[in-house]
Structure formats: structure tokens, C-alpha cells
Specification:
- The structure is a single chain.
- The chain is 59% helix and 15% strand.
- It is an alpha+beta fold.
- The chain is elongated and about 80 Å long.
- Residues 172-233 form the ANTAR domain.
- It holds the Pfam family ANTAR.
Length: 241
């Protein structure tokens, strides 16, 4: 049996996969990665899809990025109802879908709103399980004249591939944010220690007394201790109480 040669559809899909594989963290944010995913999906998938990323957090589910208002709105509907494809995929780690929003028996309220907004198919692919992050990449496809089975196959294949760079970008941004918070904490500690050293030297205080002096000014002026310390280090002037 011979395989078909020069299938333009297969070539377009492979080209999209190749572009997804070349996404660089240095050149993108999570939002721009998602927009890139959506742009590529628009090239190879029927139904003018829009995408979003759901993350399950302790305080509840959240959409951390969306390529269009439709995706964000349908995510929010599911959060309000407490159930839907995006939350189920994130919770269970299983690909979840509403293949036809106009004939859905599961999640009828979600399906009805999606259908009213012109969305024909909903597919949620769980993010890879890593760093204890639970989430899903959601693909909302508008009505299309393409065969339903072909559409489902393409959407599932594309989303399963696209979820990898989306997940990696999310974890990368979280790591950067944590590093920035750590650096800010280290910077705060350094300037506070510097201010304490000056107070200890100038007023012959103990380390605890020096910190209490900074804390007192912080409370009296409703200013962060770090800012009080930084101002003192820069000006050399310490308010007397």
C-alpha cells in the first residue's frame, strides 16, 4: 500500500508543529505563546479557534492567558458553575471535550452558552503533570463546514502537541517570578541590615533595638520597613520620636 504524497493538509500541520517546537522563552510571554498557538491553530484547524489556559489554584481556578474574549468568557462560565471541560481536564488529567455544543448531554449550561456564542466544539487538554501544577489548554472552535470527525481529530492532535510549549512557558514564568521575589527579599534584607548597622554604630543600640526603631517609624508613617531603611541609608537622617 502506498502512502499519499504531498498532502498539503499534513504539510501544514507539520509546519505548525515545527513552529511550536521552535518557540523561545526569551522572545515570548505566556500570553504571546498562546496567541502564537492560536495563530498556528487558525492555519491548520477549521472553525477559527481561540485558546486559553486554565490553572487550578488553592483559591480556585483561573485563566492565566487567553487569546480572545470568547475563550475567557467560556472559561469564566465553567468556573462559575464549578464544572466543565477545562476544569475536568485539569482535575483528572484526561482530555475532555464537548464535540458538538448543540447536541451535548454533559455540561448543558456550558454547551448552551458556547453554542449561543457560535462555538461548535470545546476541547480541553491537561497540562503535563509537573511541579504540582494542574491545568489545561482549552480550544474553542467556532462552527465549521468541515467533517466533525476530521475536525475533532485535528483539534485533538494539535492541542496535544501545543500543550507542551504552553505548559513549559507557564512554568518558566512562575520560576522567573519566584526568582524575582527572592531577589527582592534579599535586597530588602540587605538594606535593612545596612540601616541597622548605621543605627547600632551611631546610637549604640543592639541589633534588636535598631530593628525596633525602624519598625516604629514604619508604623508611624505607614511605610514599609524596607523603604524606611532605604531612606535612612540614603539621607543619613533618622526621625526622632
Amino acid at each position: 500500500m502506498t502512502r499519499p504524497q504531498n498532502d498539503p493538509s499534513a504539510a501544514a500541520v507539520q509546519s505548525a508543529f515545527d513552529e511550536l517546537g521552535r518557540l523561545s522563552f526569551a522572545d515570548h510571554s505566556l500570553e504571546s505563546v498562546l496567541h502564537t498557538v492560536t495563530a498556528l491553530a487558525g492555519r491548520v484547524l477549521p472553525g477559527e479557534p481561540v485558546t486559553s489556559v486554565t490553572i487550578l489554584r488553592e483559591r480556585g481556578p483561573a485563566t492565566v492567558a487567553a487569546s480572545g474574549q470568547l475563550a475567557d468568557d467560556l472559561d469564566q462560565t465553567q468556573y462559575r458553575l464549578g464544572d466543565g471541560p477545562c476544569m475536568t481536564a485539569a482535575r483528572t488529567g484526561q482530555l475532555t471535550e464537548i464535540p458538538d455544543t448543540r447536541a451535548a448531554t454533559q455540561w448543558p449550561e456550558v454547551a448552551a452558552e458556547a453554542a449561543e456564542r457560535g462555538c461548535d466544539t470545546v476541547l480541553s487538554v491537561p497540562l503535563p503533570v509537573q511541579e504540582r501544577v494542574r491545568g489545561a489548554l482549552n480550544v474553542y472552535a467556532r462552527a465549521s463546514s468541515a467533517p466533525v470527525d476530521r475536525t475533532r481529530e485535528l483539534v485533538a492532535r494539535f492541542a496535544t502537541y501545543a500543550v507542551v510549549p504552553v505548559s513549559n512557558m507557564y512554568l518558566y514564568e512562575i520560576a522567573v517570578e519566584r526568582a524575582e521575589h527572592l531577589q527582592a527579599a534579599l535586597d530588602s534584607r540587605a538594606v535593612i541590615d545596612q540601616a541597622k548597622g548605621i543605627l547600632i554604630e551611631r546610637f549604640k543600640l543592639t541589633a534588636d533595638q535598631a530593628f525596633q526603631a525602624l519598625a516604629r517609624i514604619s508604623m508611624e508613617t505607614n511605610t514599609k520597613v524596607r523603604d524606611v531603611a532605604e531612606r535612612f541609608v540614603e539621607s543619613g537622617e533618622f526621625p526622632s520620636g
